[in-house]
Design a protein that fits this description.
3 helices, 146 residues, alpha+beta
Amino acid sequence: MITQSIDNILVEKANRKMHLRQGDEIVKTYKISLGKNPMGAKVKSGDNRTPEGNYTIEKHNPQSKFHLSLRISYPNEEQIKSAKEGNYEPGGDIMIHGYPNKIPAFLFYFWHKWKDWTAGCIAVTNDEIEEIYDIVKDGTPITILP
């Protein structure tokens, strides 16, 4: 159980790690799964990439189709503008979440540990999302590195 407050999140896509932090101090690290096409930043809907850049946690969602979720503020204004200029949809609904509700957790555990499987989200285990959901507040900054 995390007893320290969390004031930012750092995601390292290349290392498949997410760090909950207080300032620059790492409080807890999680192994993560990413979008099915993880190389490069998310640009448009359907590219199966996880965004890169600076965002915030916008909202806790207890009614998610996954075992809890935290909405990330992707796309930002610049990404929306680029999408309009390029005549494509930037995508959205980027979350930190647990396993899909439709699949028993014990079946999904091994898949999650060895494969990127989301449509662009950041996935952790169900136990981990419960811990993260309780400690991370709306408005928390999240930086997603390549």
